[in-house]
Amino acid sequence: MRTQTRLPAQRPQPTHRDGPHGYDDLEPDLRRLAGMEPDDPARGPLRERLICEFLPLVRNLSRRYLTATHSAEDILQVATLGLIKALDRYNPDAATGGPLGYLIPSIRGEILRYLRDHSWALRVPRDLKELSIGINRATVTLTQQLGRAPRPSELAEELGTTTADVVEALGALESYRASSLDVPGSDGELTLGDRLGDEDPDLEAASMRDELRDRIDVLPPRERRILLLRFFCQRRVRSDPLATVWD
């Protein structure tokens, strides 16, 4: 007699996934994924299905962080990578607030790290980038409280750091956007590229002249006179040592 394998009953899928509990039906699958061994043959298909299930969440979050300097495809790709990392690290005992309470901060953090590391025109240390973000937020708060733009010392007190660090971060903020060398200045002025100086060939020779002067000063008077006549008076030394030294 042939036995018929009974498949597990499929849970009804919600018609929409809006609200903070829109993905609660996937929590049992998340727990099952977290408890599987890496070499479990059932882990791969379950993982892929969960990624597909949470893709609407990823698209919704990525649209909130679109910028003029980054394409929507780049942000979506970064958000998807954040989802995959979050699924692989999911701990049902540590996660609170349902699946979204863990996945949303993880995906958002991946997007923000990408924007922080790829939005600056020049390479700036990470600590200055993070401090500059705090300065922007503190500036808005203090401006509303003080009725004027805050001083660096006031920003430092608000952020719990030193005034020197705030000044350095403010200087780093000037590197957030690069200016084009071909954009004309105001009132028809020359472009920045036209106003930049060329390389001065005498700069390298300046240090050599100083070193040469120090070496000449320690020479005996006769040898200094020979150098003066040879290189500045175009005089040549005779090959006959018994003759007069100079022509």
Would you write up a description of this structure?
- The termini are far apart.
- Residues 1-12 and 239-247 have low confidence and may be disordered.
- The chain is mostly helical and 247 residues long.
- It is elongated and about 95 Å long.
- It contains 10 helices and no strands.
In short:
With 247 residues, this protein is mostly helical.
Question: How many strand segments?
Answer: 0
Task: Please estimate the helix content.
Answer: 55-70%
Mean pLDDT: 77
What's the overall geometry? elongated
Quote the distance from N terminus to C terminus.
Answer: 125 Å
Number of helices: 10
Estimate what percentage of residues fall within beta strands. under 5%
Radius of gyration: 35 Å
Largest sheet: none
Q: List SSEs in N-to-C order.
A: HHHHHHHHHH
Strand and helix map with partners:
Blueprint lengths: L26 H8 L8 H21 L8 H18 L8 H21 L7 H21 L5 H8 L3 H11 L18 H4 L6 H16 L3 H12 L15
Keywords: DNA-binding, Sigma factor, Transcription, Transcription regulation
Organism: Pseudonocardia parietis
Protein name: RNA polymerase sigma-B factor
